[in-house]
């Protein structure tokens, strides 16, 4: 899919706009995305100061040189990008070269005349080039109201991140520019959807004068509430979303141009890196699935943070103390087949303290019953991996019956050890499943997703099973939104198993919970819209306005 363009704008300077953009760019790149940053604050460029320690050499060209390229008939947008070192695929286009001639070069530019001469079409070609080569294009726009600001807020972006502080001049200025951008966007001779605006309350201090800070927070929510209408899930309140989009004031990070996300790799909730991760995840999700953010912030961030993550191990084998011998034999067979395995023994409390799992998949050796420890281990795995292509595969010892398992384990497709199917055979089957050679269910069991979702709305299940269904439809909404058909089909199969009627019927069974119903309704609307959406044809109008 083509990349997305996000412009970071603030009506006033000094609100942390460039700081926010630079840190989010680093996070997106560290999460495996191809990222391009452009410093379009041409009168007061400063984004490069955050990246300077990662630049092998000072930029020799930049945004202003796009004008020279246009005048001289060149099309080389990639020529002005420099790769930052040690930050993944993160490229930077400076405002221009850092020398005395830059000011004169900038002062010669007449933006209105350029657009009359066709510079808008040239920029559109640049935009198409950038979105074809990068997952995310982040533009640092100048403050106030200007021709350059119009390029950044109306012409180029898919989404506008409006960074403001808790004063009326800042918030109302940002809201007004968002309104102006929408009006200007409608006059563009390029096909653009309505601009989505993400209000980010920056440098907000609620540690001192808590009552006063909450009063100002409410004022800011009231001023910006209408900006959420075309992207916030209807089940999420503006107040709740606003709290997720708040950058706390931390005096330590106000000195110089710093990147706290490099120092706070696993930040706690009171650190600024935690808030930066949340906003970066909103960007990475392209403003989608905000209902998941409201319910489970860590899963929301994890879904994008780990989506392209390289794991150190292929499989973690959970070993109950009564089955260590056969489990160790299975591990040996797996390693003989090239699987990188890490063992976890029931009761290993260090597992619960790890912020991330080092293994991609989990194999649960079940001996007689799923222990409390293993049940907690599976729940932790699901919590950390919601919406990702990671599997839990139970392996049952002889005499173990799955009908006694808790709901979140009992619906999983399992393998069984027996006298004729020992560790070597189970290891072979595990390898086939992990490498995609053997489906978790037979192909004819794969249901049509819309029909399956409607079936879920009419099901009557016990509360524990509804909890599992809720997790599955949450994960489906992530994979459907990302267009991941393979993972969607796998989750649909799991959902079919989860909603299948099981005796005894009647007692304790309930209709679909409202929260689950909302997610299913959203999925059905998305699937129906995609089935009916016609091909869009650009409307090339001539008036630039």
Automatic annotation (TrEMBL):
It comes from Amycolatopsis camponoti. Gene3D superfamilies: P-loop containing nucleotide triphosphate hydrolases. Pfam families: CbiA (PF01656). NCBIfam families: AAA_KGGVGR (NF047398). PANTHER family: P-LOOP CONTAINING NUCLEOSIDE TRIPHOSPHATE HYDROLASE, PARA FAMILY PROTEIN CT_582. It comes from the Bacteria. GO terms for biological process: signal transduction. SUPFAM superfamilies: P-loop containing nucleoside triphosphate hydrolases. Residues 311-434 form the TIR domain. This is TIR domain-containing protein.
């Amino acid at each position: 899919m083509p990349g997305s363009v996000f412009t970071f704008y603030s009506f006033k300077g000094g609100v942390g706009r460039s700081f926010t953009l630079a840190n989010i760019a680093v996070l997106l790149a560290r999460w495996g995305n191809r990222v391009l940053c452009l410093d379009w604050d041409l009168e007061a460029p400063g984004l490069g100061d955050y990246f300077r320690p990662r630049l092998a050499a000072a930029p020799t060209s930049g945004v202003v040189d796009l004008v020279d390229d246009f005048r001289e008939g060149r099309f080389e947008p990639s020529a002005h990008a420099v790769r930052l070192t040690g930050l993944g695929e993160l490229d930077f286009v400076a405002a221009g070269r850092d020398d005395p001639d830059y000011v004169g070069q900038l002062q010669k530019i007449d933006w209105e005349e350029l657009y009359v001469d066709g510079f808008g079409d040239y920029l559109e070609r640049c935009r198409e080039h950038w979105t074809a080569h990068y997952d995310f294009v982040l533009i640092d726009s100048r403050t106030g109201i200007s021709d350059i600001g119009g390029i950044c807020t109306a012409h180029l972006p898919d989404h506008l991140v409006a960074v403001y502080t808790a004063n009326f001049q800042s918030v109302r200025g940002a809201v007004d520019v968002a309104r102006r951008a929408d009006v200007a966007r409608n006059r563009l001779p390029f096909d653009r959807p309505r601009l989505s605006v993400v209000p980010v309350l920056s440098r907000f201090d609620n540690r001192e004068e808590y009552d006063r800070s909450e009063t100002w927070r409410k004022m800011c929510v009231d001023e910006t509430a209408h900006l959420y209408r075309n992207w916030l899930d209807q089940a999420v309140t503006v107040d709740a979303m606003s709290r997720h989009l708040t950058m706390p004031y931390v005096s330590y990070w106000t000195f110089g141009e710093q990147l706290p996300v490099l120092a706070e790799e696993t930040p706690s909730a009171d650190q600024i890196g935690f808030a930066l991760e949340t906003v970066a995840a909103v960007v990475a999700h392209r403003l989608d699935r905000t209902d998941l953010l409201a319910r489970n912030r860590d899963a929301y961030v994890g879904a994008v943070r780990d989506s392209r993550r390289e794991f150190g191990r292929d499989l973690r084998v959970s070993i109950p103390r009564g089955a260590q011998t056969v489990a160790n034999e299975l591990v040996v067979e797996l390693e003989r087949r090239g699987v990188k395995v890490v063992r976890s023994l029931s009761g290993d409390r260090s597992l619960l303290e790890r912020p991330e799992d080092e293994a991609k998949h989990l194999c649960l050796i079940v001996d007689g019953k799923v222990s409390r420890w293993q049940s907690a281990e599976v729940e932790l795995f699901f919590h950390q991996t919601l919406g990702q292509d990671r599997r839990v595969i139970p392996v049952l010892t002889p005499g173990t019956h799955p009908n006694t398992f808790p709901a979140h384990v009992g619906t999983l497709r399992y393998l069984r050890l027996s006298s004729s199917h020992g560790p070597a055979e189970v290891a072979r089957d595990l390898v086939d499943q992990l490498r995609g050679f053997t489906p978790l269910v037979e192909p004819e069991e794969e249901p049509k997703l819309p029909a399956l979702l409607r079936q879920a709305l009419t099901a009557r299940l016990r509360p524990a099973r509804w909890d599992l269904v809720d997790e599955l439809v949450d994960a489906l909404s992530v994979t459907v939104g990302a267009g991941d058909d393979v993972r969607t089909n796998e989750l649909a199969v799991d959902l079919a198993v989860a909603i299948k009627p099981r005796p005894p019927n009647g007692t304790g069974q309930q209709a679909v919970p409202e929260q689950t119903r909302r997610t299913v309704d959203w999925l059905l609307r998305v699937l129906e819209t995609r089935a009916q959406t016609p091909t869009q044809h650009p409307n090339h109008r001539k008036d630039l306005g």
